[in-house]
Amino acid sequence: MTETFVPPTAFAVPGRIAVNNRAAATWQTATLTEIRRETPHAATFRFAVPQWTGHLPGQHLMLRLTAEDGYVAQRHYSIASPPGDAGHIELTLDHVEGGEVSGWFHTVARPGDSVEVRGPLSGFFAWPGDRPALLIGAGSGVVPLMSMLRHHRARALDVPLRLLVSARSPEELIYAREYGAETMLVFTRGAPHGVPVGRMAAVHVAPLLAEQPRGGWEAYVCGSNGFAEHASRLLVEAGQPVDRIRIERFG
Amino acid sequence: MNVTRGFTGRPRAHNTGLPPGQYDAGDDWPVLAAEVTPDLAPADWTFGIDGLVAEPRTWDWEQAHALPASAYEGDIHCVTSWSKFGVRFGGVSLDAFLDTVRPDATATHAVAYSHTGYTTNLPLADLTGGRAWIVWEYDGKPLPAEHGGPARLIVPHLYFWKSAKWIAGLRILDHDEPGFWEQNGYHARGNPWEEQRYSGD
């Protein structure tokens, strides 16, 4: 292949890893083995996928459900589990109002059911664990970030990792029991007694950018588009270079 | 066929406008961009074409608007599986720009690139013959920044990641060269009707 064209612009965010094209193109059967409730609106679905070739934290997959008349519905979902959970993957899904796929998961699915998946997909949001990671997520946007945090812990990595999580209230906080000293929580609607309620702001982001690790932060932002716009603007205003900000949005 | 127990999907009419594996997003227009939305004023926007052309050229906002107006009204399809029907974009046909620079006979492909550094590759044949536009209006209003404003490329017969937001230019080539998502595992062409989502499809 010839050398890839690099545009004469200043902001390009390079990809992180090459993707295994064969894995990305092949549908595999994933068997549901366990359902764990996370919040009133979100649950984690654990699957056995014996042929899974592995993934990096931050990657996603495509999931397909097929109706009896041949109708298929496909959706992208971030992977919540860390690499190294051999032959298994976990997804955490919000119950979206009127959602045909999330609706099936939350009202019909039970262990033993099978669905089809292909992936892992995209090398852009992946975090191999090599660079200091500043992770900012809201709602179910914490899913790919939790894969990174779990990977960091499982491997006892010493590369710095910090997590900023925004949730509507403690009841809506996904993975509530798993956060540690690396995480700062922001509640937008309701908070425990004595904890302020409000939107993520410069006051949360600025201190993290003031204590830059060696090599600087690689920032990963995941959430709704509104949140992603807001959080990425906070990062830029606090001095984070735009070419070190990776964004995963869901509409 | 691998039927999912208890899955019926949402009620559906025979909708021939929906490519395989897609659903109708209705009034929603999800925003999908991996980079920070740039703060790009029309006065700072330019669009250039270079590479294998007789006369490389860059247009500014006024010069681009002086070209004959052209609109697209139809459907768009995102690889993440939503489609949106009956959208209206206003701008200029890409043919108007290409006719000015005159690609060489050896030219076969283009890399479109944005003011943010995003790239995506396209066969030249997908960009000519009234199949691609540079647009600055959506539904009669200025194109919002989060959807690529002030101006973006649209190539509506391909998955929408080919329709580069904040378009800055085209480099005309005599070979194919993967762009940003194509290097990240996505298909080189991205025809929704053939479900060319990922490399290997």
UniProtKB/TrEMBL annotation, chain A:
FAD-binding FR-type domain boundaries: 25-127
CDD domains: FNR_iron_sulfur_binding_3
Names of the cofactor(s): FAD
Keyword Glycoprotein carried by entry: no
Alphabetical keyword list: 2Fe-2S, Iron, Iron-sulfur, Metal-binding
InterPro entries, alphabetized: Cbr1-like_FAD-bd_dom, FAD-bd_FR_type, FNR_nucleotide-bd, MRET, Riboflavin_synthase-like_b-brl
PROSITE patterns recorded: FAD_FR (PS51384)
Taxonomy, superkingdom: Bacteria
GO molecular function: 2 iron, 2 sulfur cluster binding; oxidoreductase activity
Matching Gene3D superfamilies: Nucleotide-binding domain of ferredoxin-NADP reductase (FNR) module, Translation factors
Regions crossing the membrane: none
Protein name: Ferredoxin reductase
High-level lineage: Bacteria, Bacillati, Actinomycetota, Actinomycetes, Kitasatosporales
Automatic annotation (TrEMBL), chain B:
Domain of life: Bacteria
Cross-referenced InterPro entries: OxRdtase_Mopterin-bd_dom, OxRdtase_Mopterin-bd_sf
Location of region: Disordered: 1-21
Domain Oxidoreductase molybdopterin-binding: 37-181
Protein name: Sulfite oxidase-like oxidoreductase
